[in-house]
Amino acid sequence: MRFLRCADSGLLVELDDLDAVQALHAALSDAPPEGVVDLVPAARTLLLQLDPRRADVAAIEAAVRAVEPRRSVGGDGALVEVPVVYDGADLAEVAALTGLTEREVVDRHTSAEWTVAFGGFAPGFGYLAGGPPELVVPRRSESRTKVPPGSVGLAGAFSGIYPRESPGGWQLIGRTDLEVWRVDRDPPALLRPGVRVRFQEVR
Amino acid sequence: MSCVEVLATGPLATVQDLGRPGLAGIGVGRSGAADSGAFRLANRLVGNDEGAAAIEVTFGGLVVRATRDLTAALTGAPCPITVDGRGAAPNSVLRIPAGAVVELGVPDRGLRSYLAVRGGIAVEPVLGSRATDVLAGLGPEPLAPGMTLPVGPPPRRFPQVDVAPVPACPDGEITLRVVFGPRHDWFTEDALSTLVSSCYEVTADSNRVGMRLSGPLLERCRHDELPSEGMVAGALQVPPSARPTLFLADHPVTGGYPVIAVVVAADLDKAAQARPGQRIRFRS
């Protein structure tokens, strides 16, 4: 565990891997130390955003070191099932990159149980971890200026669903009608950290 | 109900409050007033809670009409302000009679002004806040001519002072204090000394998300890819162009380029008032 300061506005905690990030995020979410206004989990870091008027950074560092990481992450154990039409523009490219057939890519994607590791990029976008290692692919060398909402993609070890039209560099393998983000719904995001996700093929 | 009718907006006018903290896990940033000190002052002047929603005006140009008698205050970048053609003072309590037109000119210094009305702008909150997040596309739409903004019920408190003494927005070179990190070790020693010994200029490619700066390149000593990580307002992120971007209120929740240094929280309001063409020095 390494602490990196962001002036007086943040404390970036660098951890060994995604599991450690999730465990620390879960533990700190229950009782954030005084002066911490938000927690931003990512692949290898957890950022504690601070209120500089209330935060005592040394005390917060000590509190983070003392906290017992929690293995059972949040998300109330919810399972979200995502119906997907697998006709994405990059499906053939993903097959070529992985050495699998397109059918095998779809089978691997639907047979795994994914977990939302963290959000970011856009409201309601969840980075889904826990997929099969065969599906690890690089981002597209060129980002698209417009990715349609509901696009299902792969990048690195993650899968994700675009909540709205936006630019993006993920390899697109399919699309879903499921609205993963609606501000007039409670909760607005279906894909909150800790939520489990299964993809189901529809034709 | 009292309302404010929007007649003209200038380059950009949005509703802002103190934002929506606590939602980063679902990809929602804080947003809120870019110069929160000026925003809070505007609310205090009219007797509102500091977090009541007000209008953030970028580079002047806002024209509104009051449907009923209103109490208002203008803070931040000192736009010339008239009420039915008569000059009025910024940082003071303004009585706006029903039907009167309030017109803001272009400020001669600073960038963002705040027009607060007693009772606050009462548009529907989104995820607990009335702030417009231009990056995430959350909250009310930016103001447009023809829009009508409802005003909330007056608070119990009354305005306490008529005028607030406020230091002028700097119009020359500004100095912002920074602390190196969290990723200063991704940069050469030269880059670190360049950042705090050179002058950077705010480019036109700047908005509530951040300010792109022009100036000497900040060279990296590590060229591998940084896994995306959480960002704070005030972060100086260095993309492959090797020129820094200073993140403001609507900055992305996470970013994939290293942050060489972060502007201290107390200087963020000053940063939010820097206008394109203005020069910035960073001091560690």
Write down the overall mean pLDDT of chain A.
Answer: 93
What would you report as the Rg of chain B, rounded to the nearest angstrom?
A: 19 Å
- Under CATH, the homologous superfamily of the largest domain in chain A reads Cyclophilin-like
Q: Pick out the low-confidence regions of chain A.
A: none
- What is the domain total for the residues of chain A? 2
User: What kind of sheet is the major sheet of chain A?
Assistant: 4 strands, antiparallel
What top-tier CATH class of the largest domain in chain A fits best? Mainly Beta
Structural class of chain A: alpha+beta
Give unreliable regions of chain B as ranges. Answer: none
The major beta sheet of chain B can be summarized as: 7 strands, mixed, barrel
Oligomer: heterodimer
Q: Would you identify the CATH architecture of the largest domain in chain A?
A: Beta Barrel
Q: How many domains of chain B?
A: 2
- From the spread of the alpha carbons, the general shape of chain B counts as elongated
What is the percent of helical residues of chain A?
Answer: 10-25%
Strand elements of chain B, count: 20
Helix content of chain B: under 10%
List the chains of the largest interface with their residue counts. Answer: A-B, 40 and 38 residues
Keywords (chain A): ATP-binding, Hydrolase, Nucleotide-binding
Protein name (chain A): KipI family sensor histidine kinase inhibitor
Domain Carboxyltransferase (chain A): 1-191
InterPro entries (chain A): CT_C_D, Cyclophilin-like_dom_sf, PxpB
